Inverse folding.
């Protein structure tokens, strides 16, 4: 007897296994896993100094165009390049960061995006490996975020 489990399309499983699963929605569809907890850590970048990274050690960024707890990166043209870091149910772990600087904000699609000092944070699609900071300074609007919620500087 093959109910439920056999009727699930294979691409659903594949999309959840994508590397961006913890990073967030791409083109409007949520890839955050149920009960997923975003993990943030402090890393030392040779290029820009102390930065906040996700659990896979990818640098996190903010844009000067965002307002406090308000994202301007909502359209696929932006989220495909700058996937937001999501926290299912607003849950995240960040033992190395000041808890008073951390929070989440609700995106229009209902997902919760992690904020540091009120700034929504994102990954950069062109960071090819953990520790890259190639998004720092893009269009003079995007910057690696430091543990204090400011632009990372060495």
């Amino acid at each position: 007897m093959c109910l439920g489990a056999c009727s699930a399309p294979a691409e659903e499983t594949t999309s959840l296994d994508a590397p961006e699963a913890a990073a967030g929605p791409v083109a409007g569809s949520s890839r955050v896993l149920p009960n997923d907890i975003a993990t943030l850590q402090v890393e030392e970048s040779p290029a820009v100094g102390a930065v906040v990274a996700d659990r896979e050690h990818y640098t996190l960024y903010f844009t000067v165009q965002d307002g406090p707890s308000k994202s301007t990166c909502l359209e696929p043209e932006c989220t495909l390049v700058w996937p937001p870091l999501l926290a299912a149910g607003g849950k995240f772990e960040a033992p190395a960061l000041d808890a008073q600087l951390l929070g989440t904000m609700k995106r229009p699609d209902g997902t919760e995006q992690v904020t540091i000092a009120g700034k929504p944070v994102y990954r950069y699609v062109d960071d090819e490996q953990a520790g890259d900071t190639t998004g720092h300074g893009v269009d003079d609007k995007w910057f690696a975020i430091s543990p204090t919620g400011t632009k990372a500087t060495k």
